[in-house]
Amino acid sequence: MSGNGDDVMMFAHGFGCDQNMWRDVYPSFQENYKIVLFDHVGAGNSDLSAYCFEKYDCLEGYAQDIVAIAKVLNINDGVFVGHSVSAMMGLIAANMAPGIFKTLILVAPSPAYINQEDYIGGFSKSEIDELLESLNNNHLGWSMTMGPVIMGNSNKKELGEELANSFCKTDPEIAKHFARTTFLTDKREILGDTKLPVLILQCSSDIIAPIEVGQYMQNNIPDSTLVIMNATGHCPNLSAPEETVLAISNYLYGQ
């Protein structure tokens, strides 16, 4: 926790990452917000012995942790910033415990990664199965290959390497399980239940969450704003922190 404001801004990281992924974003909000950073159970410096495969077999398990943190810290009307799969965790948590958040900021979110009849998620079912099988068979090899691909921004190789190393540091069994929970999720049905104002930050080219996903979310979340960023790749919080900060600031301070 850090920051000087009365209102709280909570940052949640995505698959294979930890709270350090927000290092170039959260300092810009410390003057106006109390900042809360955390590692999901199974990630970063969390207590790995607390990881429960049954609990974290669905996103609701992670959302319960978000609600628990909010209650312990007595967070009310906070701002939730979630990257990638954590964006959906934030939507679920907001529905679980109305009042803890007043605004949701979703960075490169996706409610479902698998293409359906009239929905473009970015992957076929066979592609997701292949991705998960590859991870299952060779965690380190998958991490070193997919880190740079997911990051994009080939001109910033150090960021791709950082993401790959972050993947590699994750306990292999937890990584495999979290990947299944992430990539097999379909939470499209909860979008219409969202009662809070939502900012969707969509990268202009993202192999994990294509533009159609951001447009779908905007069309299905009642009070939502879609911003398509110049940033590319799946992690604008690392590859384009200034643009990410500007987009969040324009939304929060322009309201």
Task: Report on this structure.
With 255 residues, this protein is α/β, with parallel strands linked by helices. It has helices spanning 59-72, 85-96, 125-137, 139-151, 157-169, 172-183, 211-220, 236-239, 241-254, and strands spanning 2-3, 7-12, 33-37, 78-83, 101-107, 198-205, 224-232. Strands 1-3-2-4-5-6-7 form a 7-stranded mixed β-sheet, with helices on both faces. Strand 6, helix 7 (211-220) and strand 7 form a beta-alpha-beta unit. The mean pLDDT is 88.
Helix content class = 40-55%
- Major sheet description: 7 strands, mixed
Terminus-to-terminus distance: 25 Å
Briefly note the structural class of the backbone.
Answer: alpha/beta
How much of the sequence lies in strands comes to 15-25%
Number of strands: 7
| Mean residue pLDDT | 88
Task: Give, in order, the helices and strands.
Answer: EEEHEHEHHHHEHEHH
Low-confidence stretches: none
Please list the strands of the largest sheet in the order they lie side by side: 1-3-2-4-5-6-7
Instruction: Work out the radius of gyration.
Output: 17 Å
What general outline do the C-alpha atoms trace?
globular
SS field, number of helical segments? 9
